[in-house]
Every structure is written in structure tokens, then in C-alpha cells.
Amino acid sequence: MNRLITSWGAYDLTRFPEDPRDPLRAWSAADAYLLRHLAGETGDTGDTEEAAAKPVDLSGTVAVVGDRWGALTTALAGHAGHAPTLITDSFLAGEATRANVARAGFAPDAVRISTTGDAPPSRIDVLLVRVPKSLALLEDQLHRLAPALHAGTVVVGTGMVTEIHTSTLDLFERIIGPTRTSLARQKARLIFSTPDPERTAGPSPWPRDYVLDGDSGAGAGLTAVNHAGVFCAERLDIGTRFFLRHLPTGTGAAHIVDLGCGNGVLGTAATVADPRATVTFIDESYPAVTSAEATFRANGLDPARAEFVAGDALSAVPAGSVDLVLNNPPFHSHQATSGATAWRMFSGARAALRPGGELWVVGNRHLGYHVKLRKLFGNSQVVASDPKFVVLRAVKRDR
Q: Would you say the pTM of this structure is higher than 0.70?
């Protein structure tokens, strides 16, 4: 747990799921910079001379996009005129926000939490954007929110200097209106965009789809549908391609889980290969789960054979109910490298698998997943490898 100190108060914040051993902070200098600006502490307009400090009027409808762990939303919960609306692509971010708001002593209805797939507010008076890693996700959200803006809407983005590029500013400029940036503070920067009522950027170009080529193993010929923000949304990533070439087939698995499903091509390919199986697609990303469902349907499969879940790894899956888990775990938490997500996925897989059930994992060779699997399962077999990737198999055995 770590404390964010603002002019409105101090807030003890954690990521989700909470882990006292986690060294990663639940807020950044970019969050703190934006809160100081809202409170009128910086007077930073982006010009060469700083203007007099002036608080931002928060009495209207406030929308917060992409708040990673709820720092911005929690601080605003007791100080905006109305309950701020968090618009998030992340199940974990939503749960972190709920926990942090409760820890701060605010009632659950002090904030509203919606996903990137929900209908946006009809009118937004203050739009705050935590710049995401995915430029496509930013593009999609600005397109979706632009109709709710008016000439008087205050639009402020925030991010670390390394996260804000010319392409980032071009999106704000093209979709919202004239855009400028602030001075850099503690390696963070603000983005100021003025809505232009005459500007019509048109509909979002997302989702997109493509057909997997003949070099995609069990996935060859499948259609993949990708919503904005999904990893490698415009092409099949090389790790998944390698996994598809070595995907387990003919295992007789009755219940398969595509864990961290992304666009769902692994689970879809496994379902095509075994017509008797049912599959559960799980990801903490709402756009990923939506993409997986669209991919499954686009390939003519019976929706009754699949379940689509936005959640924290396998926490919602009954113990001993799964025959096969397919997993391509992420090893980044936003900009930070972390093995915590993979460990949680592997631990959850062991609990969810029945005796004799199998976990198949693809990962970069240097990540050493075989060590983690041996600790958890007592075994780990290399199914396939190349200079960059390895596919591993672990079997749940009675101990």
C-alpha cells in the first residue's frame, strides 16, 4: 500500500489483487500532476510563462478514462460535483478503484464504473484521460467520447513523458480539437485539448479483422476479430503463432480454458480441433473478451459451447473442473515488467484443473516459466522450442 498526497487529502492506494509484497505503486507522477492541475496548484498552461493557478470547475459531469488503479477516480470521488464516471478497459482496474474508494471512506455510489464497451455519458463537462499504452485504444475511446463533448468541455490528458508521442497528440488534435502540452514535471506531462464543435472525426475504425495464414498451425484459415486495445490487434503475434503450431489436439478434453485469451484464437482453434469440447475464454481486458466472442462467432462455432469471462485469472472457475488450460501470459503490467500475473495464472490453473488435467504455456525462453511450473506442479515438459519461444506442458498430479 502506498499513499498519494493531494490538496484534497491523502489516499492509501493499492493495485488489485492486493499483495503487500508488490513493490509497484498504484499511482504515478502523471496522476499526481493531473490532480495538482485540477486543484489549481500548477498554473501550467504549456506556454513559456506560467499562468495564475486556477482550479478546474468539477461541478458538472466528470469522466475519467483509463485510470489504471483508481487513483484519479478515488481523489475525485469526494470533490467532484457529481459522482465521477470511470471508463475502463480493465477488470482489475475497476476492482482496484472500488477497493480504493471504499478504503478512502467514500460510499460505493461516490463513483460510477463503466467499461469501454458500455454506452458513454451523453454529456461530458470534464474529460480526463490517462494516456494508455495502446494508441488504438486511445483512438477508439476518443472517437466514442467526442459526441458527448461541447465547446466548454475541459479535456486534459496525462502520462509519463515516455508515453506521450507526436502520434498521441495527433489523435487528440484530429478527433477533439486544438491540442498543446504542458511543461514536464517529474517526467510527466499534461495534454490540453480544446473541443472543436465543427470537427467531425467520424466513427471509430475499430474493431478490425484478418484471416490467419497457412503458417498459423491449428489456426490457419480462422478469422480473428480485434477490438482496440487487444495485444497485437492488427496481426497475429509471433508467440501465439508458435503456440498454434504446437497446440494440443485430440486430447479428449471436455472443458478447455483459454486463459488471458486476447482475441481468442487459441481457444477457437482448440474448439475447432475437438468438436466435443466446451471452452471458457478469460481475460482481465474487456476488449479482449469482446474480441474473443466475436472471433468465436465469426468462425461459425456454436455459442452454446463457449463462455466469455472478464475476471482475475481463474478465480471464478470452480476447482477441479477443467481438463486443459491454454495460456500465453503477459509479463508486463503497463510499463513495468512483472512475473506476478504469470504466477497467479499458473497457481489458478493448478487449482482449476482436475487430476490429470494439463496446463500448456507459451513464453519467451528467458522468462524461465519452467521453474515456476516445477514448483507448482512438480513437473514441466518442453513440448517445442525455438531461439525465442518455448511451449511447456505441466500435468496436475495427486500429491
A: yes
